[in-house]
């Protein structure tokens, strides 16, 4: 029969697991709202998407900048973890690369406005950018190498260059709703394909 300390420990672990899940739900909801409405979207919209009260959002993220940074980090991690999973589960390395770049575009669209939200903390923004490169460049390189080794793409494309090019294609998204960066990124990827 479990003692009181074992029961208390199990309850604390359950509470921590619930808090982690709630945080993940909030981050996913905030990312969706940021894509649809920008980083200045009302907190009540994020809370409604997550199915919680606004107080819950503020309890986890006291300021908007805290929330934006957390969403940024959450999406970097999701994008980094998706690369190997897509490579293992996709029909081909190029299919994995295409799926991953779709996630990367979603991430880039979400992060527009980050600099504005963090304007008072340029050091924090630089640290986040370094974190972004450290986590995602190796994942993109792994996907590019696998596609080249499979003979699906020409070798020699550098991950940083591809990611920077995709970032440049995403830059005009906020200014013109008629502009679809995903279509142009698709064309860019087709340009990497080896003929035949």
TrEMBL record:
InterPro entries cross-referenced by the UniProt entry: Homeodomain-like_sf, HTH-type_TetR-like_transc_reg, HTH_TetR, Tet_transcr_reg_TetR-rel_C_sf, TetR_SbtR-like_C
Key words of the record: DNA-binding, Transcription, Transcription regulation
PROSITE patterns membership: HTH_TETR_2
Matching SUPFAM superfamilies: Homeodomain-like, Tetracyclin repressor-like, C-terminal domain
Domain of life assignment: Bacteria
Residues covered by the HTH tetR-type domain: 20-79
Pfam families per record: TetR_C_43 (PF21597), TetR_N (PF00440)
Segment forming the signal sequence: none
Segments of the chain annotated as binding DNA: 42-61
Name of the featured protein: TetR/AcrR family transcriptional regulator
Organism name: Streptomyces koyangensis
Lineage, highest ranks first: Bacteria, Bacillati, Actinomycetota, Actinomycetes, Kitasatosporales
